[in-house]
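Lab notes, practical 5.
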Amino acid sequence: MKKRLTLLAATAAAALVLTGCAGGTEEPGSPAPEEGESSGELFEVATDVDLEGSPTFDAMTERGSVKIGVKEDQPGLGYLDAATGERTGFDIDIARWIAASLGFAEDDIEFVAIPSANREASIVNGDIDYYVGTYSITDERKDQIDFAGPYFITGQGILVAADNEDITSEDDLAGTTVCSATGSTPIQNIKDNFPDTDTEEFDTYSQCVEALNDGSVDAVTTDAAILIGYAAQDPDNLKVVGEPFTEERYGVGLPLGDDALRAFINDMFTEGGDTWQGIYDATLGLSGTEVEQPEVDAY
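Output from the prediction step:
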């Protein structure tokens, strides 16, 4: 197997997980990742890739393209500019890096936007080859699919209106209505552990943010990394409060039993630390947060 990964950027990391997830340490007005900026120059398309024992890779090769499930409404992570048709964000560039390492150029990629609730089904049914989109690794999901990674660690946070002084952490959620995406781990956490909190669910987090802006809900909850992106886009109206109160480990969703592909991607993450850092610096890192790449869980 031959891989060519050309590294153009690397910086020292300073923390294991996101720092500055709370409003008190990371001001919502921090610069947002600039849409349209890609870190594709950090890696090249591999040639002569030999990945025996992976039915998913065999299907990609026969098709001549790769189908990647993503989000497209998460600034800094997975975002689609409706005006230009350009996709940007940390998850998007991680997905591109994987594709390039497997031998697929940008023109060979088909991005497929999939709501949180439909991710496992899309992988199981073969609608996509892999999924990269703030996809938390859980034991329940491992019953249906496999994960490579984690490639990022964050935690559940809370987004509120900028003038909201009543909600400062998860301890203030009783009696409020909190919104998150259907099928996500954050909404299930609220249901399981915050019995005095009402919930509202939509297919996408952007719909929750719209509901927050029009006053239909009191807060939006999901991973702090996602919420920082929304707050940075609209600091006059939105802010992130409190500290992360869970640990979310993002993984690449893969068909169950494709051990060869999972090992390939895990090796790519392990060997490509400088590329990972360069991708982060060009996307989420523009918000001022600092991270350290996590070790993969090669189960």
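Observations recorded by the TA: Residues 1-38 have pLDDT under 50 and may be disordered. The radius of gyration is 19 Å.
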